[in-house]
User: Fold these one by one.
Assistant:
Number 1:
Amino acid sequence: MCGISAIASHRAVADNLLQCLQNLEYRGYDSCGMAIFDGRQIKLRKNVGNVEEVNAAERFKEMQGHIGIAHTRWATHGEVNAANSHPHASNSNEFVVVHNGIFSNYQVLKGQLEAKGYQFFSKTDTEIFANVMEETFKEVGDLELAFRQAVQKMEGSYAIALLSTKDPQRIYAVKKDSPLVIGLSDGANYVASDINAFISETRDTILLEDYEYAILDSAGYQVKRVVDGSASPKQVIRVQWDRQTAQRGGFSHYMLKEIFDQPQTVRSALNIDSRQIETFAEKITQKSRNFCVGVGTTYYVAMIGSYLFKRYADLYVPAISSDEFPSLIPLDEDMHVLFFSQSGETYDTRMAVDAAQKGGAATSAIVNVVGSSISRQVEDCIFQGSGPEICVVSTKAALSQVILLWQIALAVGLKRNQLALKEATRIRDELSRFANSMEQILNEESGFVRQLALQTNKVQNWLFMGKDIYYPIALESALKMKEVTYLHAEGLPAGFLKHGTLAMVDENLYCLFFLPHPSEGGLYRSSLSAMEEVKARKGKVITFCSADNQEAQELADHVFILPSQATAESNPLMQMILAQLFSYYSALHLGLNIDKPRNLAKSVTVG
Ligand code: F6R
């Protein structure tokens, strides 16, 4: 994930900024750069490669000046090249910015700026903001006001640091849905994506909230609100983490950090340029046969997609596991295959793309890693912008793919006249609300999930069950459990119970039921019946429901309480993240190597 650092200091900053870049390397990146005000103008150096390589080529340390901004880029818009790496300068070179996140309206703003004669030298959304700043400054003639107004023109998620010749002693920084922290020390103040950037210099930090901006110079700082420029009083926090803990954002493992990253990554997925969603929907609508393909977790994502296409577009889009795809699917030119891959390098999925293309099928993909093999192989690719996933097991990348699929399914539903625009808008709003309620769930339920994981620590066999869309969620959740705890956890459709599985139910068997929302009528009731079948044979039942759902609570031995605002749309997603947490805490109590489970690799590039 991209990393921002900025310093305003009494002393030369190049060495210190370089150190900040190195400190943020752990976040994952493909290029880096730095901009420093040398007393007359802003000098900018950047390139592709790791910090050491780029420093060797660009000689950052030779840059002169007491104030500067720097960035490690993890590509989300535009390929990995020097032009796309940060910082980005406006046409006059007077406004230079670094940015994390995605501006969802950058194409519209780009068109407006082009009409005014602005030129663009990269494929990034960030360069648009540099020029929006320049144009806004021309209009209002005051840097702080221009910054506030320019920020209000931007939609999407962002953390930004700005350096400008119009006020070259100060750094301007702002955030929305992307983290930004301030570091305070004697004679130098910092802004960064996380405290690792400056932890060797200071542990005194201030956390910026959404729609707050900071102005810093070497002697002090102010924090204000974007909406009206009013002061926002902040508390200085002294962080006590060691370096390793700090790299995980204070979390004990990357898996936990990545679970907690999800509100942000879901928002990024919701902010993806709607034209990309349209392109995919168009392709799906045009072809007579469509398939969703992935392997492991991404196969389960593909399965979730099948339910969404049926639900919103009345379209059957089968999900096939990448490894089975070549032997299973007859190919022709009137078909389209949508692939899913976090890494973009998975061998089985690459082979499936090869097979599809050889058979004349149209191909597209949702991929997390820009520049990866699969993203280059397919004709159309959406980069999900979830940031690097470091834990071997996939959490945030999978959920983001589901959110993207949701939007594609809605768009296909509209095109096929299976869905009214009003209903599609309601569902989209619901997904946005889910991004916010996720924070509440993660914060409020963690304690209980941890406790239950401790209580069930001796359980050896798990069945994870669900119906409809809850079935692939049960499969995915069982996979998570297997991966991190090494226990037997089997995912299956709840309807299978009486067709065989009931034979193994006794008082030692624990069943986790993914329960539909009560508003889902028959689906909800038949899932409750399946729970009853297990209870009648003394099996243990754990499920998910809201606090006012008495019948589910009476039936189950344990219940994960969902917020009352859960709806048919957010209900399965809330259960998915709680199941991730449950696997995490189960493995934690077992003392296992959660981020690197035995026998597994993050990117399976061989067959
Ligand atoms: C499960 C997991 C794997 C991957 C699978 C595909 O937690 O991480 O099952 O989902 O290996 O990997 P990508 O998505 O990189 O193609």
Number 2:
Amino acid sequence: MRISMQKIAVCVSGGGTNLQAIIDAVHSGKIHNTQIAVVISNKADAYALERANNAGIPALCISPKEYENRSAFGEAMVALHKYNIDLVVLAGYLVIVPSEMIAAYPNKIINIHPSLIPAHCGMGYYGLKVHESVLACGNKITGATVHFVDEKADHGPIILQKAVEVKNGDTPEILQRRVMEQAEWNILPEAIDLIGAGKVSVQNGIAVVSR
Ligand code: GRF
């Protein structure tokens, strides 16, 4: 059981509804003993940064475009060390995590993906594109996945998943909203809380959650 406060960094690129769910869960006590130490976006105009400012959380823009190459960007991101981060949370973060960061935080980076991995994931599957693919396949259920991040996109050990019904007449926008409301905004805070409580381990490449 962790004694010290779990300090997390949240990486964002867009509206930040998953970040807001984390902020709200920390305030409500759904996530125990955790502090959001910093929010980082690759987009200076990401509304998620405004959400962080409104919550009094340090918010930075670290854009790959500002660095001459990927390794320089990777070193900039590893500067997270100064915040003594225990866990990095990718919440709607659309940048491929540099290998320097993965090396610096082995099984300490998690991501929320809006489908039931391994379906509808990997390069090019993000945002509405995921839900367009689900509808094009005629799936009757979809959902969201929280997983550890490794070198490949949407590929690391699965921590939590939650299924969501696909309904007749769904558009990608309607389905995205349902997956956010019924799955993403629940399992991402839950995964952070479980990790903070030392209840998640990885054994032979499989994440094991002990509630
Ligand atoms: C959502 O589709 C989420 O599933 C994905 O990024 C999109 C935006 O998330 N991870 P947010 O509102 O910026 O958290």
